[in-house]
Amino acid sequence: MMSRDAGGWMSSGLGERKLDDLWWIALDLETTGLDPGRDAIREYAAFATSPSGDVELITSWADVGGETGKGFVAGLETIAGRVVHGAVLVAHHLAFDLSFLAACPDAPETLVRPPVWLCSMRALAGTESLDWLADRLDVGITGRHTAVGDAHALACVLAGLVTRVRAAGGSDVQALLEAAPGNAHRRGRPGRRTQDVGGWESVRGGLDHVVPIRAVTRSQRHAFRSVTRLLERPALGPRHLIDAEACVLSLRAAGIHAAALDLLVGELADPGDTCRGAAAPR
């Protein structure tokens, strides 16, 4: 099924869902860096927005002792429990958050690949920041760049949009998208299949295209291996939109450019040839 909504930055079929039936889960992670293969989650929070627009805290966690511990996993399982029962998982740049969750061996699969999801940055803000989106809906942010502050602001944004849509006579998610402040950024863009992206070629298009002058480093190989462990068929590359975006984020953070990716993907087919230099043919 082709998703005509938000350029595909939401799960298939979500546009036709009725707002009266939907709970939204606003998630935010704060991390120690940009590379899911090397950096860690230092705090997270999730708020629920009800069909009537009420906002409540589901769970929050912060690293205060240098270890994740049981509280880390328990909180994620609490969020997953809401998602598995049909709530829409939303984050501002969802792929970034999910790439870090995917790197956590104890993260529930429901959160790594949520059944129903929406990226608020792409679908509601047209790639603008959370501050931009909140400002246009008169939502104040207390504690910017904290997980609790940002997740709460996003939940209030969703509540504000639901209220706006209902006041205008709308009843479904498609109407919510059309009422979003970033709708002008989406107008006229074709949809994309959320379950069918172009494998490694789609990732290559998101990386820098330069002629390499040095070998692939050990840390870059580690980053690439971390990415491939998240994929069902590593040799083909990501087939899901979220996975593709997460790969781009991880590989860019590790400094891997398009030519280096070609080399590393080639080594998947020839696993014994991992000692070559990274320089691709000029």
Averaged pLDDT: 83
By CATH reckoning, the class of the largest domain would read Alpha Beta
Radius of gyration: 19 Å
Q: Give the overall silhouette.
A: globular
Largest sheet: 5 strands, mixed
Percentage beta strand: 5-15%
So, CATH architecture of the largest domain? Answer: 2-Layer Sandwich
User: In total, how many domains does the architecture comprise?
Assistant: 2
Q: What name does CATH use for the topology of the largest domain?
A: Nucleotidyltransferase, domain 5
Cα-to-Cα separation, first versus last residue: 41 Å
Low-confidence stretches: 1-7, 184-195, 273-282
Strand order of the largest sheet: 3-2-1-4-5
- Number of discrete helical segments: 12
The share of residues in helices is 40-55%
Structural class: alpha/beta
SSE order, as H and E?
EEEHEHHEHHHHHHHHH
Number of strands: 5
Question: CATH H-level name of the largest domain... which superfamily?
Answer: Ribonuclease H-like superfamily/Ribonuclease H
How would you characterize the overall build of this protein?
The chain is α/β, with parallel strands linked by helices and 282 residues long. The chain folds into two domains: 181 residues, Nucleotidyltransferase, domain 5, CATH 3.30.420; 71 residues, no CATH class. The chain has a five-stranded mixed beta sheet. A hairpin with a 5-residue loop joins β2 and β3. The longest helix is centred in the middle third of the chain and has 21 residues. It starts with 23 loop residues before the first strand and ends in a 13-residue tail after the last helix.
